[in-house]
């Protein structure tokens, strides 16, 4: 997953945008995270979890908004207007 995310980030950004020193530091960071279970490993692990949950909640299925039939809405609006003392709603 981390490999795919890095690959897509590098595909769509021009090479002139990157500083060679920062790229080298990033590669060193990832190698250290892979070799030792230190702070680097925890950071990468947490980034992976954040990405996972963002994708999981993005894929929720669509639940359409419930809209009552027209007749029910008119009756409800008339009831509200009678309570407020405004008058009646034409049918």
Describe the structure.
This protein has helices at residues 2-11, 20-35, 39-58, 70-84. The protein is an all-alpha fold and 91 residues long. The protein folds into two domains: 2-58; 64-91, no CATH class. Helix 2 (20-35) crosses helix 3 (39-58). The chain is elongated. It starts with a helix and ends in a 7-residue tail after the last helix.
What's the structural blueprint in terms of helices and strands?
Layout: H1 2-11, H2 20-35, H3 39-58, H4 70-84
Put the structure in a nutshell.
The chain is mostly helical and 91 residues long.
What is the first-to-last residue Cα distance? Answer: 60 Å
Structural class: mainly alpha
**Radius of gyration (Å):** 28 Å
Tally the beta strands. Answer: 0
Number of domains: 2
* Main sheet attributes: strand count, strand direction, barrel closure: none
Given the C-alpha coordinates, what overall shape results? Answer: elongated
Overall average residue pLDDT: 76
Order of helices and strands, N to C? HHHH
Q: Tally the helices.
A: 4
Helix content: 55-70%
* Beta-strand residue percentage: under 5%
* Low-confidence spans: none
């Amino acid at each position: 997953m981390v490999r795919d995310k890095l690959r897509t980030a590098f595909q769509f950004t021009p090479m002139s945008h990157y500083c060679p020193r920062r790229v080298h530091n990033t590669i060193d960071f990832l190698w250290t995270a892979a070799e030792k279970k230190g702070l680097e490993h925890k950071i990468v692990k947490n980034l992976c979890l954040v990405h996972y949950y963002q994708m999981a909640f993005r894929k929720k299925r669509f639940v359409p908004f419930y809209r009552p039939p027209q007749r029910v809405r008119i009756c409800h609006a008339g009831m509200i207007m009678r309570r407020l003392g405004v008058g009646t709603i034409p049918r």
